[in-house]
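FW: tagging you since you asked about this chain on Friday. Here's the raw sequence from the shared folder, copied in full. Didn't touch anything.
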Amino acid sequence: MLYLDIVINELKSIILFEKYFFSITCISLLVFFYFLYKNIFSSNYKYKVIILIRLLFIILLLPLINNKIHNKTETSLRNQNISIIIDNSKSLDHISKKDSINFKNIFNLINDWSKKYEINLKWHNLDNDIQDYKSIKFDKENTTFSNIKNIVQKNESDQIIIFSDGNINTDYISNDLFLPEYKKVHTIGIGKIKDNMDIGVQDVNLNTSKDSINIDIVFSANISKDAIFKLNILSDNNIINIDTIRVKEGEYFFEKTYIFKSNVFSKDIQVNISPINFNDLIIHNNKWVIKNRYQQNLKLLLISNSLSYNTMFIKNLISSIDLIELEHLYKFDENFLLNKYSFNDFDGIILDNFPNNLSDYDYLKNKFVDKIPYFFIEGYELNPEYIVKFINEKFQAKLNFNDNSYPKSILINNEKNISNIMSLFNIYSSEQIDLSENFHYNNKSLYQIHKKNFLGLFIPNLSEISFYLKNKYEDLYLEKYIKYLIDIHFGQNNLYKLNLDKKNYLIGDKLQINIINTLSNEQKEQKLIIKNINNNQIDTINNNITSDIILSKSGNYEIYSLYQGTNTKQINSNKETFFVENKSIESDQVSQNKYLLNSISSKYNGLYVDAKNLNETWLSKIENKKVITNSKKIYTSLEIFIKEKFFLLVLILFCFEIYLRKKTGLL
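HL: got it, structure written out here
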């Protein structure tokens, strides 16, 4: 008995002085007990029995004084817990109809077998627990075994039986279910067993450097014999490279890297493969399109009326922006006098306090190209006559101006307040303007003007204002705002960019998207806009959600992201296109991947059988013996004293002592 062991251990601890104070106390009590009862002990045998009972009584109660905590291991037998995991994807529904397989007969057979051997069956689909097999619906758009480990862990299954065709089309194909090795996994294969001949592109990654592009292609192979296929790499339907690849039989992934010069490719890079000596099942994509992320530098021309601190401020600001190549031209520069540059050679023009007189205006008028964007930034002592004339004539605006002698204040982009701005003039518009892109001073005159491909910032001495904010308040808002204007006006979209990691999909695929947003503006309700180019149908999706976007309809699509700025202006990212092929793996693949199912069973010491050969003989090979379980339980000395009924023994001894005392006249 456990309590007797506890008593013996307690006596040992007293003798060995494991607890010094407790041992001294017990020994002192024993000495006191001896002197108290030594005369009585020698008188009569009944007295001796009474004293021995009293001593035994004390010894039995000793463990209750410390009331230590003890571990007790208990052994028991229970029935086997087996989880039946049913692949509920659409492909099984197609197999059932095409091959006339009655799944319920199979499930009934398994259920009867479990009752015969008193096995606890638990039914699941690939995602959740189900009450029983009668409620299963084969409507899942894709197949993955990644959730099996969670099902097994949640239900404490001893063994697992997987009922599937083995055609995984989401996540990587592997026989590793991330289960403990002692968990046995059995598989029942559904569908006709065919020779798999599938070569596909699993993933494509671009690694760009200054002058080269590395294209890393991951291929998926699932073939029953050696094969050859051709790989084409294209750009704008022009073939850049052709490679003939030989593959060995088996199911595996392999990778190849191709290196090209950056200028070989245009916007999109296409990769496609075609079989040479076999018919491809096309389980994985044979075509892949990815955006060329290598960007040419944006070439800008900065024209200054004269050199100033404002000019230095603008140049330093632009030089801090990636992928911009800047040429600077000022009025008394040799290149200006030689009339060297053509505006057609640039992606955009930045006007630094230019034009500021008639000769400036004539130069700009003669050089003007209407298709490129212009960005004007006011400097020192600007004469507004010529820039207003330029905007009105070239961009069909209706602006006018007058003199001003009072300080003004602004709320830049409806976010940042700046006061005491000494502007020498006021600019107004006599036509209705878009208030989300044209902003006013407190006296209703304009400080930001946007008309067609012209953007003007009429805030004098920007460098001084920025210097003051930066050094006194560590405030970089003005610099960030000008960078933002440059980014969106010249179409770089480096600050708010949407990238598609993949541009071709099958129905049921997950949209692979990445959004970069580093704008200084507060983001509110960021959304994804997906437009079907074929029928102009538009879907708006809240981009703050974490769930995946599953593509359910075929077609050509355009996608971009947007959010509402603090000035109620809609801020858009760049636009990308992708297409979804009218093909669903779950609908087209109606054969059985015996290789994978057999491999899973072998890895986890289980059994495999084709559903057509499933019978009670095969089921009887599955281990059905009761499981021995050892469980550790924690008790205190008092709990064991009560649990093992020692309190009854103590009570009996106590009663017997009372009886003897009464007989001997001691009571």
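FW: The longest strand covers residues 197-208.
HL: agreed, and The mean pLDDT is 82.
FW: great, closing this out.
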